[in-house]
Write a structure and sequence with these properties.
114 residues; mainly alpha; 62% helix
Length: 114
Amino acid sequence: MNKTIRSALEETFPDLDNYKTEIDITDKFFKDRGISDDKLDQVFWNHMISLWERIDKNEQNDLEIENMEEFSKEAKNLLEEYILEVSKHRNFEINNFEKMLVAIYMQRMQEEEK
């Protein structure tokens, strides 16, 4: 996460340092897969940090989602890899609606990298 984004997020999330491990894991995960820093924009980070907070507070969005067929196989695979990686370090059990929201970013990142 670049310093400009971090400074902006610290205003929204005063306890941002509580998520240092998750931020580091996420940064490394995407860098290891050749996804550039500029794809991990402030909107992405805001969503991920608020998702981690919702998990910690047991407040995930619980809207129904039928399926994720509109996402590419690559995006779904990237999502599953990411969930497995983060789950090694913290509770990261997310419901289907939350998965769909994260998959939107995965799809966008992959489309922009092409």
